[in-house]
Design goal:
The protein is mostly beta strands and 121 residues long. The protein has strands at residues 2-7, 10-12, 18-26, 33-39, 46-52, 57-59, 67-72, 77-82, 91-99, 108-111, 115-119. Strand 5 (46-52) and strand 6 form a beta hairpin. The radius of gyration is 14 Å and the shape is elongated.
Length: 121
């Protein structure tokens, strides 16, 4: 099994920055993709960005140029640096890890419980 835990959320003023961390542990394959998502009570969970174990990144349009995803492969951690935060960025932020045992098996995705980010003055 794989466990995923997010941390780093909190209250921040508009225009501020926050860095979220995600730690994965357990039976992790050498190739995987880690992603950051967010969700509010009014919206479905939406993708922000993903990063592969090789370092390739992919961003949703919603990330604009304010969010940066990175990872530490050895520690099986990913980070989401969020800058210029706006009240509309308020949400629960989730981390996921997606992997498969080999090319013949399906992908499995593991989720954390989320961390709350509130942007307010």
């Amino acid at each position: 099994q794989v466990q995923v835990v997010e941390s780093g959320g909190g209250l921040v003023q508009p225009g501020g920055s926050l860095r979220l961390s995600c730690t994965a542990s357990g039976n992790i394959q050498s190739v995987f993709i880690m992603g950051w998502y967010r969700q509010t009570q009014e919206t479905e969970r939406e993708l922000i960005a993903t990063i592969s174990s090789g370092g390739a990144t992919n961003y949703a349009d919603s990330a604009e140029d304010r969010f940066v995803i990175s990872r530490d492969y050895a520690k099986k951690m990913s980070y989401l640096q969020m800058n210029g935060l706006k009240p509309e960025d308020t949400a629960v932020y989730y981390c996921s890890l997606r992997q498969r045992r080999n090319v013949l098996t399906k992908y499995s995705e593991y989720w954390g419980r989320g961390t709350q980010v509130t942007v307010s003055s």
